[in-house]
Sequence to fold (178 residues):
Amino acid sequence: MERSVSVLLPVHNAQNTLARNVATVLDVLPELTDQFEVLIIDDGSTDGTEEVTRELSREVPHVRVARHDARRGLAEALHTGLERTDSEIVFLRDTVDSMEHEVHGDGMAQLWRLRDDQDIAIARKKNSQFGIQMIRREALEKTALRPTEAFLKTPQPVCAVDVETRDTCFAEMNDFLV
Fold:
């Protein structure tokens, strides 16, 4: 069965790197599924990010944009993104930053292999300073937690797993509170 995918990219002042990172994501997604979208959540950027996001959404049909007028932080950016998407699988970055760190498609591909694992609600692939997560909405709904609560507010989210170690204990999950 073909799964639908949304990629949430929360950003702040990312005008210099956003187009390149979106291109990286768009290179990977067609290899995973035909049903995908990229939602950029501009968290109150004050540089030219808003113009870059508008241009990307005009040029690329799979790209959509949500914008906060003022900076609200990661939790609100993720909440906005999750409210505006309904895909079965959601990938998201665990930071709202200038996206100085490259998005690596291999992390999404590794997480994608776990998409049908019924025991996983949230999986994480961590690089040096940031990570990318995959949320399986169906499994997360069974936990009775909102995705942002599971991801941001519980010390050990139900059925969370690290893709490399298969470790289900994420002591650092609370580090993402903004």
About this structure: The CA atoms of residues 7 and 86 lie 11 Å apart.
